[in-house]
Amino acid sequence: QIFTELIQHWNLESPYMVAHDFGGAISLRAHLLHGIDYKKWILMNVVAMAPWGSPFFAHVQKHEAAFAGLPRYIHKAILEAYIKGALYKSLPSDDLNALISPWMTDAGQSAFYRQIGQADQKYTDEVEALYSTIRCPVRILWGEEDEWIPIETGRRLNRAIGQNDFHSVSNAGHLVQLDQSETILEHIIQYMA
Questions:
Q1: For 178, which of 26, 43, 100, 172 is 20 to 30 Å away at the CA?
Q2: Which residues of the chain have pLDDT under 50?
Q3: Are the beta carbons of 134 and 32 closer than 8 angstroms?
Q4: The pLDDT value given to residue 68
Q5: Can you tell me the distance from the alpha carbon of 18 to that of 73, in angstroms, rounded to the nearest whole number?
């Protein structure tokens, strides 16, 4: 709803859309439930199909308050392990720290666990049956080594949409845009041209 209102506020008509992870669920809901059209759309390792949520997600959802109060050094260790689990390649330490630092303040720490606690499969259950009614061209890019959302989920999404524009990305995990940034950029430039 907020994303839809933002697009309307900016007077964007049929913008190009690139979505990753939960951005997939948000952009799918904006399109299918709120009438937002896109000129072209790239979905990369998106949250879009059941089942979703890792064992870590399930544990945080049961004990969110306890995680929000973790000592800072334990929270940092969890963040590092969490982000590294989304990568196939190693990141330079400066890049890894850039991903971690927004979550290291008091507000960031509680927000990190709160957004996991608020995750709910109902957000995609409500639109999953509508994927074949998508009104614009869609390309799906998926890291072959994604341990968070397996590539088979991406293939199921491709079949549900029915446009058959699926591309697996080798040597890439969930953070496909970091593992294979040049390949992803080439896809975006070529597809959106």
A1: 26
A2: none
A3: yes
A4: 82
A5: 34
Find out whether 82 and 40 touch, Cβ atoms under 8 Å. Answer: no
- Residue 69: the pLDDT is 87
Question: Which residue is associated with the tokens 């990753």?
Answer: 20
How far are the Cα atoms of 34, 46, 75, 81, 99 from residue 16, in angstroms, in the given order? 17, 16, 36, 33, 25
- Residue 108 one-letter amino acid: G
Strand order in the sheet with 166-169: 17-21, 41-46, 138-143, 166-169
Q: What is the identity of the amino acid at 19?
A: A
Coil, strand, or helix at residue 45? strand
Query: What would the two tokens of residue 40 be?
Result: 């072209």
Is 119 buried (19+), middle (13-18) or exposed (0-12) by CB count in 10 A?
middle
Would you call 30 helix, strand, or coil by DSSP? helix
Q: Give yes or no for a contact between 179 and 144, defined as CB atoms under 8 angstroms apart.
A: no
